[in-house]
Each structure stands twice: as C-alpha cells, then as structure tokens.
Design a protein that fits this description.
Helix content: 40-55%
Number of helices: 21
CATH superfamily of the largest domain: Alanine racemase
Number of strands: 14
Number of domains: 3
Length: 444
C-alpha cells in the first residue's frame, strides 16, 4: 500500500496535462483503491458489476467509476443503477440500444465510449472501423446515451510498429465519427500508454504500473480442476438442446430447448425418465428410452457433423493450468463416447482422467460424479475446483463440498447459477483465465 502513491507519482510524471488517468482497480482490494484515492486519484476502472457494487458502498462517493469490462445486456440495468461516470466498453449496436432503453426507464442520460476493434486478435471485441463510420445516424437517434468517444486495445505484442498502427487506426476512426465535441480517445495501458499518448490518446487505463504486477502461481493451492464437458469444453449445448427437443417431442414428450439447458448435467436416462414420470406418472420403458436417445444422438450428429467445436479460449485455460502443474479432469453426464473419447485428441492430452455417465450410478445434480473425481484425484477438497456452466452441475459441485466457478456460456440468467451458490460467475473463458491468474485462491 505504501508504494502505490509513489507509483502514481511516477506514472503522472509521464502523462501530459489534458490526459485523464484511469486507475484500473479491478480485483484490487478496497484498501489499495483507498491508497490511490488518498494520493489524489479520482478515476477508477472496474470490469465486473458485482465487484463494483461492493466497492461503491465502501469508498468515497466522489470517485468517478469507469466500467471497462465486457458488459452483458442482462447486466445493463444493474450497472446503470450504480451511475457510472463512463461505460467504456460498448462493443455492439445491440448493447448500445439496450443501454439507451434502460437509461430511458431510469430517466437518465448515460455517457459511453464505443469500443473499436483494431487489434489483430479475435478474442478482443468491438465495432470494426467501418461499423464505427456507419453509426452516426443511429447515435443521433438515441436520446438517453451520450457517446463521448472511442476506446480501444492494441494487439498484445512487443512489436511497437503494430501497437502504433492500432492506435493510429483508432484515432482515424474517431475522426471519421465526426459528431463529437472534445471527444475522448481512451487507449493505452500499463505496457503501452506512452505510445498511445504519442498517437493522440487523452485517457489512459493503467493498473499494474500502479497496483503492482499480478501474482504468479509459483505454489498453487489448487491441485486439480474438474471441468464439465458440454458448454464448458465443447460448444455443444445449442445442438444438444435442439436435438433433445426434437427427439422428445417426436416420441410424445413435449420438451423445450430451455428445459434442456435447465436439465443439463443429468444423464440421458435421467432426463427422459424425469419427463416421462412428470407427464405420465410412470417410468418410461427401456425400449422407449433407447429409441429417444438413438434419435437424439442421430440428430446431434447430423447438426454438428460429429464435432460441435470448442468454447472460445478454453484451450488457453487448459494450457495455463497445465503449465502450472495443475491437473485437469473432465466430469460429464454425457453418454456419447464419440465426444468424450475425442477430448484428449482435441485438447492435446490435457486431461488426467475423464469421469462419464458410465462411471456413476447417479448423475448430476447428485454429487456422486464430482465426489468420484475428488476421491480418485487423491487431493484434499480444498485443493480441487470445479468449472461448470449449468445450474444442476453447480448444485452437484457444491453438494460435493467443492469450490465452483460457473462460466455462463448459455441463455440462462446468472441468477440461476447464483441460486445454486456458485462461488464465482464469469461470462467467458477469457474472463475466467484472467481471474485464475490473479486469484489468491490459486496461489499461496
């Protein structure tokens, strides 16, 4: 804490007058933010709505909070109620309109920046330069937002020429927008803000230069991470939902795709029997169960060609964990051998072991699958962690007494994961990876 004021002085010495410093305080404790506040800073950047909610109540009310993380539309109303000074990460026209509509309901005008994608990285989000140019008319018709400028991130590279290209492209985009007085150009972070300022930035977002580098996982507390399969490793849930709804309905069991998401994690037999009992009051015959599952599997294969693709950035999570000698396991309710048998081929032999529906008597939400993984791992429960995406999977993990991170990759609201007592909720694997790198839970 004592070094924060000194680091701020060092950064300030490199920032000319007229450039706003936003201290990136995400994942930082309240005490660290208070130290920066006492050093004179008033602009702070957060990336998660829930974390910001907690900090707003504990820190002075003259802080200008900037929301700099990816914002889901179902979180817009929550963030607007916190009255952020600036939402910097508006990355789609749909999000722009949602903010405008929710702000109208609250009777406010919200200041925002449009995020422009100029980096050579697919994982970064935002409008393309051509989309920015075409937004002029749409912006003029939105009366409850005030577009104050643009935000961008450069390609993550040591090539200064590429970094400069990104920033110069963003500056051209701002000029092409041509509807703003004294516009903000927010670009430049701890590693590249001097170049950004040279290229015209008048707002920089700096975290590690002020608060210190992210902690390293030299002695990880977590020894094993248990991953669910569908919706966590494979991007398969939309196809499962559609094929289950089709097969069930074909056999006289009306079933919706949303029901499939809410039943995700159960064994196939468990899903069919639960629905059949609910409709007819008796168990389905083994022949009917087999027929439905055969039709479902056939439909799934037709839709996916046998391979549904992987969840974006999950391979990076696995690579990072393996590089830090953390075991990766799969714990799935799947009964499709073609999917779980391919896991180690798809993910380059990342997994120590795989627990499937054939290994247990009771599928999720029963804790048996995760208890079996824990018992076989040989680690203490506090040395294991679960990554899930489904409410019933979270319930199983918590019933097994395990720490559980939920990555919401489907259409269900966060509240359904929170209701099952997920310890953390994320909206992408990239967000999970960032937390893993910074979390005290994974480092002693």
């Amino acid at each position: 804490m004592e070094g924060i004021a000194e680091q701020i002085r060092n950064v300030r010495a490199q920032i000319p007058a007229g450039v706003t410093l936003v201290c990136v305080s995400k994942y930082q404790p309240v005490e660290a933010i208070r130290a920066a506040y006492e050093a004179g800073e008033r602009h702070f950047g957060e990336s998660r709505v829930q974390e910001l909610k907690q900090k707003v109540t504990q820190l002075p009310n003259d802080i200008h909070w900037h929301f700099i993380g990816h914002l889901q539309t179902n979180k817009v109303r929550d963030i607007l109620k916190l009255r952020p000074y600036l939402i910097q990460s508006v990355d789609s026209e749909h999000l722009l309109r949602t903010i405008n509509n929710e702000a109208a309901k609250l009777g406010i005008v919200q200041d925002v920046l449009l995020e422009v994608h100029v980096a050579k990285e697919e994982t970064k989000t935002g409008f393309t330069p051509s989309e920015i140019s075409n937004l002029k008319f749409q912006i003029s018709n939105l009366s409850n937002i005030r577009v104050c400028g643009l935000m961008t991130m450069a390609t993550n590279t040591e090539d200064e020429g590429e970094i400069r290209r990104c920033f110069q492209e963003a500056k051209r985009c701002l000029k092409n927008l041509n509807i703003l007085n004294n516009p903000i150009l927010s670009m430049g972070m701890s590693d590249d803000y001097p170049i950004a300022i040279e290229c015209g930035s008048n707002m920089v977002r700096i975290g590690s230069r002020i608060f210190g580098e992210r902690p390293k996982m030299n002695n990880p507390k977590i020894k094993a991470v248990f991953f669910d399969q569908d919706g966590v490793l494979y991007n398969s849930m939309p196809y499962h939902a559609a094929s289950w709804a089709w097969a069930m309905t074909k056999h006289g069991l009306p079933y919706t795709e949303m029901e499939c998401y809410r039943n995700e994690g159960r064994t196939s037999t468990g899903v069919i029997q639960e629905l059949h009992q609910r409709i007819f009051g008796v168990e389905a015959s083994p022949e009917l169960v087999a027929a439905i599952y055969k039709d479902k599997s056939s439909r799934f294969t037709q839709m996916t060609g046998g391979f549904p693709g992987i969840i974006p950035d999950v391979d990076k999570v696995l690579k990072y964990l393996r590089a830090n000698d953390i075991q990766c396991w799969v714990v799935t309710g799947s009964g499709q051998p073609d999917l779980f048998n391919a896991l180690n081929d798809v993910f380059d032999n990342a997994f120590t072991a795989i627990i499937t529906s054939f290994d247990v008597k009771h599928g999720k939400p029963d804790p048996e699958p995760y208890l079996k993984a824990w018992e076989r791992s040989g680690f203490k429960k506090e040395e294991c962690m679960v990554v899930e995406n489904a409410p019933l999977g979270v319930r199983a993990a918590k019933a097994a007494g395990l720490f559980c991170c939920a990555v919401n990759t489907g259409p269900l609201p966060d509240e359904e994961l929170a209701a099952e007592k997920a310890d953390r909720i994320f909206h992408s694997m990239a967000e999970l990876l960032e937390w893993i790198k910074e979390s005290a839970i994974l480092a002693v």
